[in-house]
Amino acid sequence: MENPGPVQALREIAFWLERDRADTYRVKAYRRAADVVADLADSEYREHERRRDWTTLPGVGAKTAGVIEQAVAGEVPRYLAELRDAAQPIGYGGELQAALRGDLHVHSDWSDGGSPIDEMMRTAATLGHDYCALTDHSPRLTIANGLSAERLRTQLAVVRDLNRELAPFRILTGIEVDILDDGALDQDSDLLDELDVVVASVHSHLRADRSEMTRRMLAAVRNPRVDVLGHCTGRLVEGSRGGRPESKFDAEKVFQACREHDVAIEINSRPERRDPPSRLIDLAVDIGCLFAIDTDAHAPGQLAWQGLGCERAMRCGVEPERVVNTWPADELLAWTRAAVG
User: Fold this and answer.
1) What is 94-338's CATH number?
2) What pLDDT was estimated at residue 341?
């Protein structure tokens, strides 16, 4: 096993811990230490290497210092080797997971994610993706530091630069746009037209009555700028945020509109969401809908959760060709751009 060097070793340890849903403070300890070492000037790095006094750095404790020491010595750190050896597949994605080419719902620290765009996308490339859509939140979701039109335009310039570095891997420009109370989308229409992928999700007034929520969702999926309907019931089935019941809406009407307007229904792979529930995936299959199997990742390790969504999709009989992120990038983008001309 190749020695990745101290910074990448620390980040990879954070990845494996995050992948297995370890306590956040443990993940942050390794990621913080990686950032500290990465920010050292070359002369500072060499001086700490000579003195072997890594624990004098802020945020570097005995365990992270041990990883640094072993990596600097040209070894694969023992803890990293243990985590690699212990890693097991997450979910059984079978042929469906093997057919996936990317992920269409991913967040960075520009909104409520925990890591920079660069780290999220390099991780996606390492996992074997051909492409990954960056879909930070829209402005109304202030609790998630949603992006104003100005901030989103700035992000697009960052993505252009990164795409030159990471080619042939491709970062798709995107957004997870809020579906407002009247079904409108929470971002400038002209800016939405520029994006590769638009995921539309309900994040507010999730307990609205059935008819109101149905009208709201129908208006959104009929909007030609929408490509994917995100975590459609809004439910939470476990996790630190507690449980949350499904929103009530006429799923048959909404899914028929998705089919008619060429909007994919997201199968969200987050363990606390598992959204939509299996009975609604079954309904969408019967109606003939398209799907997107996404991680909704807010950190690098969560990008490995797609197998959970694939396992649920396979149990419901979702065929690979009906999953839009099994398509090559050019085919996917031809589809997302068709509705908006």
Assistant:
1) 3.20.20.140
2) 62
Q: Could you identify the residue written with the tokens 């129908």?
A: 218
Neighbours of 177 (CB within 10 A): 30
Residue 48 vs residues 51, 56, 57, 76, 246: alpha-carbon distances, Å: 5, 9, 9, 19, 53
Annotated domain spans of the chain: 6-86, 94-338
Q: Extract the tokens encoding 113.
A: 């994610």
Compute the average pLDDT of residues 163-174.
Answer: 98
CATH class of 6-86: mainly alpha
Q: Cα separation of 73 and 254, whole Å?
A: 58
Q: What is the 3-state secondary structure (H, E, C) of the chain?
A: CCCCCHHHHHHHHHHHHHHCCCCHHHHHHHHHHHHHHHCCCHHHHHHHHHHCCHHHCCCCCHHHHHHHHHHHCCCCCHHHHHHHHHCCCCCCCHHHHHHCCEEEEECCCCCCCCCCHHHHHHHHHHCCCCEEEECCECCCCHHHCCCCHHHHHHHHHHHHHHHHHHCCCEEEEEEEEEECCCCCECCCHHHHHHCCEEEEECCCCCCCCHHHHHHHHHHHHCCCCCCEECCCCCCECCCCCCCECCCCCCHHHHHHHHHHCCCEEEEECCCCCCECCHHHHHHHHHHCCCEEEECCECCHHHHHHHHHHHHHHHHCCCCHHHEHHHCCHHHHHHHHHHCCC
Q: At a CB cut-off of 8 Å and minimum separation 6, what does 194 contact?
A: 156, 173
Q: Is the dihedral of CA 251, 147, 223, 216 positive or negative?
A: positive
Model confidence, pTM: 0.93
pLDDT tens-digit readout, 58-97: 999 999 999 999 999 999 999 999 999 999 999 888 999 9
